[in-house]
Design goal:
Number of strands of chain A: 0
CATH superfamily of chain B: P-loop containing nucleotide triphosphate hydrolases
Number of domains of chain B: 1
Radius of gyration of chain B: 17 Å
Number of helices of chain A: 3
Distance between the termini of chain A: 42 Å
Oligomer: heterodimer
Number of domains of chain A: 1
Structural class of chain B: alpha/beta
Order of helices and strands of chain A: HHH
Shape of chain B: globular
Helix content of chain B: 40-55%
Strand order of the largest sheet of chain B: 2-3-1-4-5
Shape of chain A: elongated
C-alpha cells in the first residue's frame, strides 16, 4: 500500500476519534485505510497542479495575467 | 449593437484573438479596451485589451456595461467571468506549434523567456490539458454559448467564418468590413514573410 517509503503524520486525538468513528460507519477495515482513501481522493495530482502552474507562469510572462 | 449578452473573444495567447477583435470591431461591435497595452511588433494593429480583465475576481462590476460589446479574455480568465451575465464566446484555436513559436518570440522580446523552463513538448501537453479543462467547463455553463474558430481556416476561408460568426452573434455585423480586416492581416503576414525570406 505504501510503496517503498512511508511517512507518519501526527493527528490530534479528537480528530482521530472522529475519523475512527467515520471509518467504522463507512465500513472501512481500519481508520488508516479510511484516512488514506480521503487523502488520495482529495490531494491534487502532482502533474495536474504542475501543469496548471506552468500555464499560469507562461501567461504571466506574456503579460496576460498578473 | 444592443444585446443582452457580452461577446467574449478567447483562446490562448497568440491564437488569433487580436485578429478576431479587429474583425468584430470592424464589423461594428464596440470593443471594451483601455489602450494601456499599446500596439507593438507582436500586435501591430493593437491588442484590444482591458487591464481590468486581469482583476475580475476583485471587481467585475464594469462588465455590466459590456453588454452588446466585445471583450477579450484569455482562456484562463473565462473561469472568473461572473455567472450573472450571459456570454457568447468566440474561441480561437490554432496549431499548437505555431502558438508556441509565436509565444516564444514574444517572451524573448519582453525579456521574460526563462532558462530551464518547460520544453515545447511539455508546454504543449500543459496547454492541451488546460484547453480540455476549459472546453469541458464551458460546455457545462448554462450562460455561455461558444463558437470555436480555427485561426488558420479563418484566414483561408474568411467568408465562411465571417458568416458563421455573424450568425452566432445575431447577424447584425458588417461582414464586408470583417472580411477586409482579415485581408489586412493576410497582407501584413505576406509582407512579413517577404521581409524574412
Amino acid at each position: 500500500m505504501f510503496g517503498s517509503k512511508s511517512h507518519k503524520i501526527s493527528i490530534d486525538h479528537d480528530l482521530y476519534e472522529r475519523l475512527e468513528k467515520a471509518a467504522q460507519v463507512a465500513g472501512y477495515s481500519s481508520t488508516e485505510e479510511f484516512v488514506i482513501h480521503i487523502l488520495e481522493t482529495t490531494a491534487p495530482a502532482g502533474s495536474a497542479a504542475d501543469s496548471e502552474e506552468e500555464v499560469r507562469k507562461r501567461l504571466q510572462g506574456l503579460g496576460y495575467l498578473e | 449593437m444592443s444585446s443582452d449578452f457580452i461577446t467574449v473573444v478567447s483562446g490562448l495567447p497568440r491564437s488569433g484573438t487580436s485578429l478576431m477583435m479587429q474583425m468584430l470591431h470592424a464589423g461594428g461591435l464596440s470593443a471594451v479596451a483601455d489602450g494601456q497595452r499599446a500596439a507593438d511588433v507582436d500586435n501591430p494593429r493593437g491588442y484590444f485589451e482591458v487591464e481590468a480583465i486581469k482583476k475580475l475576481k476583485e471587481d467585475s462590476s464594469w462588465l455590466a456595461d459590456a453588454k452588446g460589446k466585445v471583450v477579450k479574455a484569455i482562456s484562463m480568465l473565462l473561469f472568473d467571468l461572473p455567472p450573472q451575465h450571459s456570454y457568447r464566446v468566440v474561441f480561437m484555436l490554432r496549431h499548437m506549434d505555431e502558438i508556441l513559436a509565436s509565444q516564444k518570440e514574444m517572451l524573448k522580446r519582453r525579456g521574460t523567456l526563462k532558462e530551464g523552463g518547460p520544453t515545447d513538448e511539455q508546454m504543449k501537453q500543459y496547454f492541451d490539458t488546460h484547453l480540455t479543462k476549459v472546453k469541458a467547463w464551458l460546455a457545462a455553463q448554462p450562460n455561455f454559448k461558444v463558437l470555436y474558430c480555427p485561426y488558420n481556416e479563418v484566414l483561408q476561408k474568411p467568408a465562411e467564418y465571417v458568416r458563421q460568426i455573424a450568425d452566432f452573434l445575431g447577424g447584425e455585423l458588417n461582414q464586408t468590413a470583417m472580411m477586409e480586416a482579415v485581408d489586412l492581416s493576410l497582407y501584413r503576414n505576406r509582407n512579413k514573410a517577404a521581409q524574412t525570406a
